[in-house]
Amino acid sequence: MEDLNELLIQHQISSSSDIWFWKDNVRLSFTVKEVRESLAHQIDLNTQVGDFVWNKWASGKSNMFAWRAVENKIPSAVGLRERGMSLPDYTCRLCGIAEESADHVLMQCSFAKQVWNAVLRWVKCPEVNLDGSLKHMLHEIIDIRRGRYIRKAIHAVTLQTIWNIWKIRNEKIFKGKPGTVQKAVEDIKDDSYQGLKQRSNCRSISWQQWCDFNWNM
Ligand SMILES: [Zn+2]
């Protein structure tokens, strides 16, 4: 009660109406510009947050997960070990051969590679390198020599593929359900089609047009 009294004594009540303003700001206003100025005193707002390219045609989950995977922020076995967690086994559960890093389980793994090869054949980009890192593969996709919108569609399919392979990995580990390459590819086509219908300008595209799409434009 004494503390409360102390606080109340220090507080000055005025007759003017209440206003919102940013703490530590000179001007008493509540605008985005003001908070930006305030933050600029504390951090460098011009630093790059990375070169990950967001894709509005892909789902928020696909974008966010792919970004986290590229930044090595997903809970793969190796990722958890790097954060100090001890696991009984770090082997990839999809192939049972190599350690489960993000680059491995989402791209280099024999299971993931079969999915990627089928997806890349469908989008007519069989030359993309799957032996490097996810980051390099995404750069290759972004720079692929196609029209702007085709490139964007291929990029959206790529982000969907990364997310779907992770979901298959989780189904295997946590539910014991083995995924098949054929089902994985069907789901990637379907999920990326739904994304295109919902988020792009190509909303009238039919399922058959999507499956037989001319990716060489
Ligand atoms: Zn593997």
H/E topology pattern? HHHHHHHHHH
Question: Major beta sheet, specifics?
Answer: none
| Rg measurement, Å | 24 Å
Chemical compounds bound to the protein: zinc ion
Task: Give the CA-based shape.
Answer: extended
The chain-level mean pLDDT equals: 90
Content of β-strand: under 5%
Distance between the termini: 75 Å
Lay out the secondary structure.
Blueprint: H1 2-10, H2 32-40, H3 60-70, H4 77-82, H5 102-108, H6 110-122, H7 134-142, H8 148-175, H9 181-199, H10 207-211
This protein binds zinc ion (ZN).
Description:
This protein has ten helices and no strands. It folds into two domains: 2-40, no CATH class; 60-211, no CATH class. The protein has helices at 2-10, 32-40, 60-70, 77-82, 102-108, 110-122, 134-142, 148-175, 181-199, 207-211. The radius of gyration is 24 Å and the shape is extended. The chain is mainly alpha-helical and 217 residues long. Bound molecules: zinc ion. Zinc ion binds at residues 92, 94-95, 98, 104-105, 109.
